[in-house]
């Protein structure tokens, strides 16, 4: 699997980049370009890896959990890269890159590397009689007839773009709430971060709406009804409502800044439940099936 | 021009407002919409975390009899079709409608009013010595910053008021987004199964069976089932049901239903759901050939003993099974001089059952219309920030004073950046201008 090797290289590069960011204070400024170069190289390897996977599987690389995690982590880094060039805020990377790094690592190396998750799994198996982080299936599968649709190519990437933007908003909110908590006098930084959160959530919200709408149209073609209150649909509605409340709450006096930044965090938690939890965690914890969106779920190991 | 301000002044505006007005202002309030959002989030959470539409036995097994009874009484076993959930959605619809009405009023009144009021919050005053300005040069500066001057008032030679605005599409966008939510909810209401025109049921049909579609004047004939696999695997790559729709004895349409490719006839949609092989008499297939050229004309399928119609000439024929996998076809009531066909046995297949979802929902075009409005509205509303800038120029006692203020729908830094740009442009305005003026 050539794609696997390429993705591993990109993972290695991301790890180097993360270390770079962690020790940024002690590294002279001229190394900034080196970090850019590493980021670009990682993006390039990951992109090539995705294309290879596309060719190997002969369908777009987001049909199961492994492919979805790999593509999602790529979209997050891509969006971060674009934003970093537009907004000049490298600090975002401190929050955003680990999310992407964790997802890629989870998809690629779960059994040998992530001991923490493994220990967690053992505990969870003991509690729930089933692992909450099953190993994603790395073998390409043929596309089931339900996924053979024009909307599959549109619906899933639109959601990735949306979730990626929400991850950026989460990163900006993290910076706002933790890194710059004590710099209350730096109003310019705080204002800029608030504005960034607003920008990222706006982009995410437009794509989220587009994703729900394309999903509804696809559901009408495939399952006969545009909305059937399937758990995934309900969770995406919850995410939509949380961010809609964010837009409305901002209009209330005293609700800009810190309070609304918490909404970006809350929204991101809901996004993650919608993306991962609905398929894997909720069926295990609450012990009932996940409804119609079951393609993404890896088979739990008994 | 912004909800916060109206929010704060409204109670003072109507100290003795009628109860209807008070009700309306409650319905359109931000407070109420936030409550509705929270309620919706909470009830959706309940609906997502409690398994829905299960049997009462399931609930008492899972939660214990007492909790199960409580759940069912509060219709938490079917949240999304419960009366209280639909009530919340209707409240949301009403609130949005009232809000849309208010937004329209504010939008159109603000389009006509060009007063520089107190909402122009960040006030900058520039002192520019004895430099003088014409309204044209100030308008040009606004235009360079992509502001359209909507109001120019030359009070005297020494006093000018100018108001410019940018990205008005934002206002229309927000309005559209709110209207679209109402439209989507109305479309969903029309599609609810409480009306005679909307229905939704699943129907299992055996191959070669003809069934009456309830609530419609049609009958559905399931003529043939086919499936294909990915080479060397057990996973199906495609499955197809050939069906035809009849009204009385006339055929309305003949289509192949696949997953993702339903049959649509008017508002009626028939969708492929499950499919299963069943035990039953085998289906024999014959190829009908032209006696002279021996070229295949068509195919007929049927079980032993069934009377079928031979497609080109509508001659009736019966399928006979002599022995194991030895089938033949015999023409009945053959007319004089009619064409003699050659029948070739093409094998037998075991029958299948297809489950079809039959859905009629006239609300769909309305919902889709709402969807497109929502997308356009959100794009305009979120990608552009409506801004209004007012410039007041005054020449008193030989000193030029310029006041700049502005207002934006989000009070983000963009407006301040714009004001900075305009201020700089005014300061840098060519001194030669003075002689021209």
Query: Quaternary arrangement of the chains shown?
Result: heterodimer
Counted up, domains of chain B total 4
What is the radius of gyration of chain B computed over CA atoms, rounded to a whole number of angstroms?
36 Å
In terms of structural class, how would the helical and strand content of chain B be classed?
alpha+beta
Proportion of β residues of chain B? 25-35%
Low-confidence stretches of chain B: 1-14, 432-437
- Described by the principal axes of the CA atoms, the overall outline of chain B is elongated
Low-confidence segments of chain A, given as residue ranges, are 296-302
The helix-strand sequence of chain A is HHHHHHHHH
Helicity level of chain B = 25-40%
Largest sheet of chain A, in brief, is: none
- Overall helicity of chain A: over 70%
Task: Let me know the average pLDDT of chain A.
Answer: 80
Mean pLDDT of chain B: 83
Number of helices of chain A: 9
| H/E series of chain B | HHHHHHEHEEHEEEEEEEEEEEEEEHEEHH
- The share of residues in extended strands of chain A comes to under 5%
* Count of strand segments of chain B: 19
How many strands, what sense, and barrel or not for the largest sheet of chain B?
A: 5 strands, antiparallel
Number of domain units of chain A:
1
Explain what the structure shows.
The complex is a heterodimer of chains A (302) and B (437). Chain A has 302 residues and is mainly alpha-helical. Chain A is 73% helix and 0% strand. The longest helix of chain A has 37 residues, at 187-223. Chain B is an alpha+beta fold. Chain B has four domains: 3-111; 114-167 and 385-436, 2-Layer Sandwich (Double Stranded RNA Binding Domain), CATH 3.30.160.110; 173-196 and 362-382; 199-360, no CATH class. A five-stranded antiparallel β-sheet of chain B has the order 1-19-18-3-2, with helices on one face. In chain B, strands 4-17-10-9 form a four-stranded antiparallel β-sheet, with no helix packed on it. Chains A and B meet through helix 7 and helix 8 of A and helix 1, helix 3, strand 7, strand 10 and helix 9 of B.
């Amino acid at each position: 699997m050539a794609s696997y090797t390429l993705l591993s290289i990109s993972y290695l590069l991301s790890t180097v980049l993360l270390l770079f960011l962690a020790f940024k204070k002690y590294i002279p400024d001229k190394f900034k370009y080196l970090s850019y170069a590493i980021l670009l190289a990682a993006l390039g390897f990951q992109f090539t890896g995705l294309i290879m996977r596309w060719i190997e599987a002969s369908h777009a690389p987001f049909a199961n959990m492994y492919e979805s995690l790999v593509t999602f982590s790529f979209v997050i880094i891509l969006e971060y890269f674009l934003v970093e060039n537009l907004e000049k805020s490298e600090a975002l990377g401190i929050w955003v890159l680990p999310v992407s790094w964790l997802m890629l690592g989870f998809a690629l190396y779960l059994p040998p590397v992530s001991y923490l998750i493994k220990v967690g799994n053992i505990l969870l198996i003991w509690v729930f009689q089933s692992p909450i982080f099953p190993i994603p299936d790395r073998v390409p599968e043929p596309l089931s007839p339900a996924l053979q649709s024009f909307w599959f190519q549109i619906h899933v990437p639109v959601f990735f773009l949306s979730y990626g933007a929400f991850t950026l908003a989460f990163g900006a909110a993290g910076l706002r709430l933790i890194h710059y908590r004590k710099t209350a006098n730096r109003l310019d930084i705080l204002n800029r971060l608030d504005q960034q959160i607003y920008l990222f959530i706006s982009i995410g919200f437009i794509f989220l709406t587009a994703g729900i709408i394309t999903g509804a149209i696809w559901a009408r073609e495939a399952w006969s009804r545009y909305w059937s209150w399937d758990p995934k649909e309900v969770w995406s509605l919850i995410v939509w409502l949380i961010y809609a409340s964010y837009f409305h709450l901002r209009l209330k006096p005293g609700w800009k800044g810190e309070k609304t930044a918490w909404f970006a965090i809350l929204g991101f938690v809901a996004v993650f439940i919608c993306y991962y939890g609905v398929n894997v965690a909720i069926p295990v914890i609450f012990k009932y099936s996940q409804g119609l969106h079951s393609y993404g779920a890896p088979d739990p190991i008994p | 021009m912004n909800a916060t301000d109206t929010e704060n002044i409204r109670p003072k505006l109507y100290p003795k407002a009628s109860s209807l007005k008070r009700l309306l202002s409650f319905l359109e309030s931000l407070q109420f919409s936030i409550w509705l959002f929270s309620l919706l989030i909470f009830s959706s959470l309940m609906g997502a975390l409690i398994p829905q539409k299960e049997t009462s036995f399931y609930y008492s097994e899972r939660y214990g009899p007492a909790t199960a009874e409580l759940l069912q009484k509060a219709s938490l076993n079917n949240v999304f079709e419960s009366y209280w959930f639909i009530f919340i959605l209707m409240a949301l619809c009403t609130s949005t409608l009232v809000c849309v009405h208010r937004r329209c009023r504010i939008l159109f009144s603000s389009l006509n009013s060009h007063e520089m009021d107190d909402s122009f919050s960040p006030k900058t005053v520039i002192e520019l010595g004895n430099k003088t300005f014409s309204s044209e040069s100030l308008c040009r500066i606004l235009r360079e910053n992509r502001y359209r001057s909507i109001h120019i008032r030359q009070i005297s030679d020494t006093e000018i008021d100018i108001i410019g605005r940018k990205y008005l599409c934002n206002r229309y966008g927000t309005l559209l987004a709110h209207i679209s939510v109402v439209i989507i909810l109305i479309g969903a209401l029309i599609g609810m199964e409480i009306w005679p025109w909307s229905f939704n049921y699943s129907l299992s049909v055996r191959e070669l069976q003809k069934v009456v579609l309830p609530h419609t004047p049609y009958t559905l004939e399931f003529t043939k089932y086919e499936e294909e696999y990915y080479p060397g695997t057990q996973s199906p790559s495609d499955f197809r049901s050939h069906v035809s729709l009849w009204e009385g004895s006339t055929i309305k349409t003949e289509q192949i239903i696949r997953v993702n490719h339903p049959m649509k006839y008017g508002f009626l949609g028939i969708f492929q759901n499950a499919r299963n092989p069943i035990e039953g008499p085998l289906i024999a297939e014959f190829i009908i050939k032209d006696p002279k050229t021996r070229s295949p004309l068509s195919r007929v399928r049927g079980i032993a003993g069934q009377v079928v119609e031979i497609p080109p000439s509508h001659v009736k024929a019966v399928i006979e099974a002599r022995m194991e996998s030895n089938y033949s076809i015999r023409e009945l009531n053959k007319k004089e001089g009619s064409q003699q066909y050659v029948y070739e046995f093409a094998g037998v297949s075991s029958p299948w059952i297809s489950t079809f979802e039959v859905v009629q929902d006239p609300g769909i075009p309305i919902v889709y219309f709402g969807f497109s409005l929502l997308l356009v509205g959100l794009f305009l509303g979120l990608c552009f920030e409506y801004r209004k800038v007012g410039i007041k120029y005054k020449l008193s006692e030989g000193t030029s004073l310029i006041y700049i203020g502005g207002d934006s729908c989000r009070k983000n830094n963009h407006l301040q950046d714009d004001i900075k740009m305009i201020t700089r442009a005014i300061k840098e305005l060519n001194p030669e201008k003075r002689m021209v003026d």
